[in-house]
Specification:
It is a single chain. The chain is an alpha/beta fold. It has helices spanning 48-56, 59-78, 82-93, and strands at residues 12-15, 25-28, 31-36, 39-44, 95-96, 101-102, 106-107, 112-113, 117-118, 123-124, 128-129, 134-135, 139-140, 145-146, 150-151, 156-157, 161-162, 167-168.
């Protein structure tokens, strides 16, 4: 099913039987656990291969993953746990397409990018579509080559977007 996400890409919540612990941070191989009262949030960072795998599952799977992260951010910021969780959340919400060659059409139409987005030194050999995409954090398109048309119509950049050194070619 295209709604099935890779297990490591979703925030994981489970009850803990240690209510005496107020909070704890521990990092193991890209995974950060935040224990607060009886709730455990596990955020796992996404590398390039995982970013590509999620992209290949399509917009619905991607946006379900993004929405889970945005909901967890809203809960954390409203519960005063944001300071302890901020770095782990930002790492989990980052997507990495650095130096990737998209040899077919790259259709990101309507995708939500909850954290930083890295497309640095990527190449889009066919049309690239980012129509109606929403980038919630810094977006990096430095030194990207768009070989054919690119569409950012109606896209929203909530933070800084860097297109330094980007080449826009059309045939």
């Amino acid at each position: 099913s295209n709604r099935q996400l890779l297990p490591s890409l979703r925030p994981n919540r489970r009850n803990l039987r240690r209510p005496h612990r107020q909070h704890e941070n521990s990092t193991r191989t890209g995974t950060t656990r935040l224990h607060r009262a009886r709730i455990c949030l596990v955020f796992t960072s996404m590398n390039k291969e995982e970013s590509l795998a999620l992209f290949k599952q399509g917009k619905d799977a991607w946006n379900a993953w993004a929405e889970d992260l945005l909901v967890s951010k809203a809960k954390l910021t409203s519960s005063a746990s944001w300071d302890a969780a901020k770095d782990a959340w930002k790492l989990a919400a980052t997507v990495d397409f650095t130096a990737h060659t998209f040899d077919g059409e790259a259709d990101f139409t309507g995708f939500t990018f909850p954290g930083k987005s890295a497309f640095t030194k990527s190449e889009f050999q066919k049309a690239a579509k980012f129509r109606d995409a929403k980038f919630h954090d810094y977006t990096h398109f430095e030194d990207v080559v768009f070989q054919q048309t690119v569409n950012f119509h109606e896209s929203i950049f909530c933070e800084y977007a860097n297109f330094r050194g980007t080449i826009f070619k059309t045939h």
